[in-house]
Structure formats: C-alpha cells, structure tokens
C-alpha cells in the first residue's frame, strides 16, 4: 500500500485567522503590507525555532503569504 501526502491548502485565508477575519476586508495596499510583514516575521521565526513541527507550520504560512502577495500584486496592476 502506497502512502500519499495530503495536499494542504496554501491559501493565506485558510492559514491565518487574522487575515481571514480582518485583513482580507481591507484595501489591497493594506493586504500587501500585511503579507510583506508576515513574510519578514515568518522568515525570522523559522531561523529562531528549534522545533521541527513549528518550523513546518511557519514555512507553510510563509509559502501561503508569498502566494497571496503575488496574487494581490497581479490584481492591483
């Protein structure tokens, strides 16, 4: 029997409750600023964390923020 990895959603709205409930309702410029800040903080947290599980969660959040910021920048152009 083969084991398959589950594909988790890489949407920031699913990964971050603050973004889902508050930030997503703000203008695009504010959402981009939030994503940039989240990316900066997440990169720093990955370096500081010693827990593999916590690092994995932070990396998923980081990836979701990068995807979201690309999407927002494409829609604002």
Overall geometry comes to elongated
End-to-end separation in angstroms reads: 48 Å
Could you report the average pLDDT, rounded to the nearest whole number?
89
Count of extended strands: 0
**H/E order of the elements?**
HHHH
Summarize the amount of helix as a percent range: over 70%
Overall description:
The chain is built from 4 helices and no strands. The chain is elongated, with a radius of gyration of 14 Å. The chain has 77 residues and is mainly α. It starts with 11 loop residues before the first helix and ends with a helix. The model has no long low-confidence stretch (mean pLDDT 89).
Short account of what is shown:
The protein is mainly alpha-helical and 77 residues long. The chain has helices at residues 12-15, 17-21, 28-48, 52-76.
Secondary structure: elements and pairs:
Elements lengths: L11 H4 L1 H5 L6 H21 L3 H25 L1
Helix pairs in contact: 3-4
Brief descriptors of the model:
77 residues; mainly alpha; 71% helix
């Amino acid at each position: 029997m083969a084991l398959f990895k589950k594909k988790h959603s890489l949407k920031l709205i699913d990964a971050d409750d603050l973004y889902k409930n508050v930030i997503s309702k703000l203008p695009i410029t504010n959402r981009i600023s939030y994503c940039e800040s989240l990316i900066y903080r997440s990169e720093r947290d990955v370096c500081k964390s010693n827990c593999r599980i916590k690092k994995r969660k932070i990396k998923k959040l980081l990836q979701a923020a990068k995807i979201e910021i690309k999407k927002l920048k494409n829609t604002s152009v």
